[in-house]
# Entry
Amino acid sequence: MLCVDGGADGASAQTSPVHGPAGATAVLRISAADEHSKNSHECQAEYELFVTPAGGTPASVSLLQSDDDYDRNLAVQLDGFSQDGKQIFGILDERGKHSSRILFDYQTGNASVQLIDLNKNFAHVVAPKCGTALAIIATTKTGGIVLEQNSPKQCDPDRRWLLDPVNEKVERLPRGTAILSLFRQKDEAR
# Structure
């Protein structure tokens, strides 16, 4: 979605629903509009996660708001739930003059959100020519987050990375590391 001067109405987009264990559901939404501040000429983007626990009431979680230049590309990626359903993962992506890519880790038990700057963490570990299109694919038993690099230029045979959410450090996924794939069940097309 392009963040443009859309007037008062603005624009919005959302992911398809992703189902977690025991019937929980999540949807990630992005909205963009003029930020209505005099003489700033900026576009405000708001990222929200909508979570519906199994048999529960839907809740809206504000993940992030950003004000920046018009004509920047905004994208959201909802990667899925942890196998135990206690975490929901995704990526918020802004491309433009001030690009950013933020991983979010939403904790369903206490409704807290951790935001991790992927651009900062991957700036020195991935060659620029390899690209850094990333997807969160798994977790480890110790709480690590496993990401997979997906690039049209397959210049690196080891495309899986381990992110420690405590110190926000990234390293190549050590061979033999046991991983737990994300639980991700999309709605079927009707």
Remarks:
- The mean pLDDT is 83.
- Helices lie at 118-122.
- The chain has one domain: 2-186.
- The first strand starts at residue 2 and ends at 3.
